[in-house]
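User: For this week's homework, look closely at the record that follows, marking any run of repeated tokens, and judge whether sequence predicts the tokens.
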Amino acid sequence: MQEVGEILHLATSGRVIVRLSKIVTQDQILCDENSTKVAKVTELIGPVAKPYASAISLTNNIKKFVGKKMFASEAPPAKKQNRRKQKWKQ
């Protein structure tokens, strides 16, 4: 796992603000040192030199992770393919 930053605080909107030391992609899962899934990145904000990420919490008790280092999961989450209904001709 690669260290990508640390959680700064919990915003009033309920999102987690993460100060990034390395660039991550949207929908990237952030884990703690024990590989516990903590948050999912929704958008990158701030200047290019010192980026931040807004993320959705994946745990009920996010306050205990404030100030902790975050790591990027090895593989990005698999995206579901949209299946279209086919009309069957008779």
In short: Residues 2-60+68-72 form a domain with the Thrombin, subunit H fold (CATH 2.40.10.230).
